[in-house]
Amino acid sequence: MHLGTIVGHHARYRPDHEGVVFEGQRFTWREFSLRVNRSANALLSLGLRKGDAVALVVPNCLELIELYWAAAKTGIIVVPLSPLLRGSGLFSLLRDAGAAAVVSTAELVPVLEEARAQLPGIPASRWILTAGAEASNQAGYASYSELTSGASDDAPTADIDGDDVYNIIYSSGTTGLPKGIVHTHAIRAAYCTTFVAAFRMRPESVVMHAGSLIFNGALVTFFPAFFLGTKYVLMKKFDAAAFIETIRRERVTHIMTVPSQIAAILDEPSCTKEALSSIEMLCSVGAPLHREHKERLRAVARGSLYELYGLTEGFITILDREDYDRKLDSVGCPTYMNEMRIVGENGRDLPAGEVGEIVGRGPMLMPGYHGRPDLTAQAIVNGWLHTGDLGYADDDGFLHLVDRKKDLIISGGVNVYPKDIEEVLVQHPAVREVAVFGVPHDKWGEAPVGAVILREGFSVSAEELRSWANSRVAARYQQLCEVLVMAEFPRSAAGKTLKRELRAPYWASTGAKI
Fold it and tell me: Cα-flanking dihedrals φ and ψ of residue 477, to 5°?
């Protein structure tokens, strides 16, 4: 059981079916399979072998898709990294992963030069640049296009089984330093089968992705799309108007989004029922989707909406489109062969309605964090993944997400959940996005602060927003001590809001770990 047979299967049995679309480039499965073979053979020509790690520090591009599948054919381990990484943030992860080669872009050469100085063990021939002529003109770097143009398009062979490592994906670092999450070929095969069924995909589906393809949430649709041989459309970057136009033009049926993208789409005038009429699955992932946005989304895409809660480490729940209306405030239930528990501080299971830590297990559970058995032992206890998230199960077993443990605000000894305040503040007609976090307070220990991004064309003061929200929250201890109006939030490559960066200036003088 390994992923390396998938693309070749479609090339053999569905050769003329359109398989991959990127920036106006279109490839049948036969054409794409040959490109993958050349990519795989190019890596092997550099002396790379099964078990070697290749870091992919690139934005969305055709080469990234090819390399994901070239690795699947060779047993090489892919390590997707954000092209936004700089300095120690980049070379510490390259070192941690034991990278034997690095693929990046000509635009990042100044960043790569610093990393090369820190990693002399990677030979010059294995620092590879994409982007054609620009890459060919960079002295001291190999050109991906030159390597692949001279490589054989015969399928390589490798002795791979399901327990072999396919990738190391580093956590987005929303609550701390990134950890290398290991996935095997068998785990990624479980992605194929689980999400094909959960999202009702079929070979005739058209799957699109507009966010970063290095984000694990992107792979929730990537793997099942390729498993079935659908048409897979990748956008270079997210733009709300282009996103909607691409759905209309390509007749997209399945798409994964993050809440910040949904907020932008909803404010786009072209976001209509007609524009989204081809959609059969529009799923939100990566962070809780606020009820206000759910309500607005239902007006244009009712009957096709899903929400996924999950960890890259390997546990998920899905709110299915058939349950969306009746369970609007939940994030669904565990998928096939996954199990969930809600546990208290003593590790005992809690009854329905009581808030505790979400723990789960299933076929997508990671074998561990790369090189960190200590952290693995903390996260996986007796086969159960401890998520660090708080929630409760209702009487029907559906999960209601409350908040992350590390985002919990304790004000005057009372637990304050930022999500409860966010759900109020986001209802203001001027607010597009919101993030609530705790800051030090002389009297209460901690107090909540709200950061907002306003909708285009709206103007309102921070004090007006604070007064508006504080008159509507359910309890006095939920009242905001401050509101920040921001042009943009700090985000991970996945599009997740980095609350730790928002609250860091407030806690800097205290010495507290955030």
Answer: -70, -10
Looking up residue 231, the CATH number of its domain turns out to be: 3.40.50.12780
Does residue 268 surpass a pLDDT of 60?
yes
Task: Find out whether 197 and 37 touch, Cβ atoms under 8 Å.
Answer: no
Give the confidence band of 417 by pLDDT, cuts at 50, 70, 90.
confident
Is 178 among the domain residues? no
Distance, CA of 414 to CA of 22 (rounded, Å)? 51
CATH of the domain at 47: 3.40.50.980
Residue-wise pLDDT tens digits, 172-185: 644 456 899 999 99
Residue 34 lies in a domain: yes
- Determine the Cα–Cα distance for residues 246 and 249; give it in Å rounded to an integer: 5
Q: Are residues 491 and 382 in the same domain?
A: no
Q: Residue 311: which of 224, 187, 222, 165 has the closest Cα?
A: 187
With both helix axes pointing from N to C terminus, report the angle between 462-470 and 418-425 in degrees, rounded to the nearest 10. 110
Residues 396 and 430 in one domain: no
Check the CA dihedral 62-67-68-73 and report its sign: positive
Q: Coil, strand, or helix at residue 411?
A: strand
Specify if 146 maps to a domain.
Answer: yes
Please indicate, yes or no, whether residues 500 and 466 belong to a single structural domain of this protein. yes
The Cα–Cα gap between 309 and 284 comes to 9
> Which H/E stretch holds residue 38?
helix 29-45
Give a yes or no: residue 513 inside a domain: no
The 180-184 sheet, strands edge to edge: 142-143, 127-130, 99-105, 53-56, 77-80, 165-170, 180-184
153's tokens: 């398009």
At 307, give phi and psi (nearest 5°): -135, 135
What digits encode the pLDDT tens for the residues 316-336?
A: 999 999 999 999 999 999 998
Same domain, 299 and 382: yes
Q: Report strand pairing: 127-130 vs 99-105.
A: parallel
> pLDDT tens digits for 352-391?
999 999 999 999 999 999 999 999 999 999 999 999 999 9
Domain that holds residue 91: 3-160
Amino acid symbol at 196: V
Q: Which helix (H) or strand (E) segment is 416 a member of?
A: strand 414-416
- When divided into structural domains, the chain yields a total of 3
